[in-house]
Amino acid sequence: MPINVIFHDTRLEGRTPVSTSGTRSFEVDGDTPTSEFFEHVITLSNENSGIGTLYIMAHGAQVLDLDTSAIKFTHDFISYQNVHLFQQLREKVERIVLFVCHASETDLTTHGDGDELCRQMARNAQAEVTAARENQAYLSVESCGLFSCEEAAIDFGEWEGTVVVYDRNGVIIAQYNNPSSWHDADGVMHDPRIDPSPYRDGEGANHASMGW
């Protein structure tokens, strides 16, 4: 029976979601070879009759020498230079969800053409890809007892801003628009699920709102 798989690049701050019977969670970082990630996904798919959804949790990034967008995932990042490697996931993964800021960004003056990167990922993997065009916020909640505090797993909640779904050929088949995250006068990003507008204050004091 196919499983879902989460790969969390720990440079995205927060605790990795725990594995369950239907979802397996793994951590990578800047020292993890990109080839190791693909090998791991292929092995998991072969052992479990496929992967339903592959979740990638990471920061968005820019490849400065190419002036284009990328995903800060594993040692080499995911960019135009290596997106072809997703061909290895054909018939292994049904859907890829990118929990990444600006993953499908279209503005070349800021983050580069993430939209095209997502299209190429979908075509190479022959998998549906879901990604956001804007900044995303997630919650890191700390639960405290009498003697200690424990950080709960990252809570993604709802998407912020425009979310795009690409089919296996890289064609947009759905697009959703949700409330966007916003920055206050000090440049701090706010989660619209907690602070719905710049004119409200004081909500979510026990949560940390961070960008992906």
Order of helices and strands: EEHEEEEHEEEEEEEE
Number of strands: 14
What is the multimeric organization of the chains shown?
single chain
Helix-strand makeup class: mainly beta
Overall helicity: 10-25%
Report the average pLDDT across residues. Answer: 82
Strand content: 25-35%
Strand order of the largest sheet: 2-1-3-6-7-10-11
Largest sheet: 7 strands, mixed
Radius of gyration: 17 Å
- Shape, please? globular
pLDDT < 50 runs, ≥5 residues: 199-212
Q: How many angstroms does the end-to-end distance come to?
A: 31 Å
Tally of individual helices: 2
Instruction: Count up the domains.
Output: 1
Q: Which key features would you list for this structure?
A:
2 helices, disordered C terminus, 12% helix, 14 strands, 212 residues, mainly beta, 7-stranded mixed beta sheet, 3-stranded antiparallel beta sheet
Description:
It is a single chain. The protein has two helices and 14 strands. The two termini are about 30 Å apart.
Summarize this, please?
The protein has helices at residues 34-47, 114-125, and strands spanning 3-9, 23-28, 51-57, 59-63, 68-72, 93-99, 128-132, 137-144, 149-151, 162-166, 172-177, 182-183, 189-190, 207-211. By secondary structure, the chain is mainly β.
